[in-house]
Structure formats: C-alpha cells, structure tokens
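Box 3.1 — From sequence to structure: ATP synthase subunit b
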Amino acid sequence: MPQLDFATFGNQIFWLLVALALIYFILSRVALPRIGRILGDRQGLMTADLAAAEDFKRKAREAEAAYEKALADARAEANKIVAANKAEIDAELKTAIARADAEIAARTQESERRIAEIRQSAASDARTVARDVAAELVRAFGGNADGSIDQAVDARIKGAVL
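Predicted structure (token representation):
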C-alpha cells in the first residue's frame, strides 16, 4: 500500500495540508458566511414571529375580555328580561286566579241555590208522597182520610227533620 510507504510521507503530509487549507479557505470565504446569513435571517424571523405571537396573544386576551364583558352584559340583560317576564306572568296568573276564584264562587253560590231548591222540592215532594201514602193506607184499612192526616204527616216530618 503506497499510503504506508515511509518514503512518500512528506509528500502526503504536504498535500494533506494544502487540501485542508483549501477546504478552510472555501469554507471560511464562501460557505460559512452564507450559513451565518441564513442563521441570522432565521433568528430575525424567529424574533419577528415571537413578537407577532405576543401581539396576537395580547389581542386574544383583549378579545377574550371583551367577549366576557359582552357575555356578562348579555346575561344581565337576559336576567332583566326574565324578571320582567316573570313579573308579567305573575300578574297575569294572579288575575287569572282571581277570575277563576270569582267564577268558582259564583258557581258555588248557584250550586248552593240549586241544592236548596232541590231540598225544598224534595221536602215538598216527600210531604206530598207521605200524605198520599198515608191517605191510601187509611182508606185501605177502611178509614176516612180527612185533614187530620195532613196534620199527622206534617208533625211527623217536622219531628224527623228536627
């Protein structure tokens, strides 16, 4: 192997140093400045992006605060509307209850009047039926039905009613 030949070591070391110097010169004059510019541009973009992100974050906080305020205002307005509607409904309900109570009272009075009429009619009909039955019984037993039957039936009904 020629690389391991000691006679050519000096020559190999020279060309190695020349190649390294050439690579260093190319890298330091061409590649590294380009890489530096690219890194600088990237750093500038990142700084600008971070500043824009902070600005957007601040705007988002402001928008959130405005949203929360609008939401609170909307809730307060909704509560006012609910309270107004509740008061209106309560007033209508009280009016409807009062109207229903008045109608129930009127119907109750009418029903009580009818019941009183029915009781009066039933009592009168019961007297009439009792007189007729008593008169028929007296006649069936061979007696004479006269005014004393009416007095006896009235006395008995008054005694039963009392």
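Summary of the box: Helices lie at 9-140, 147-161.
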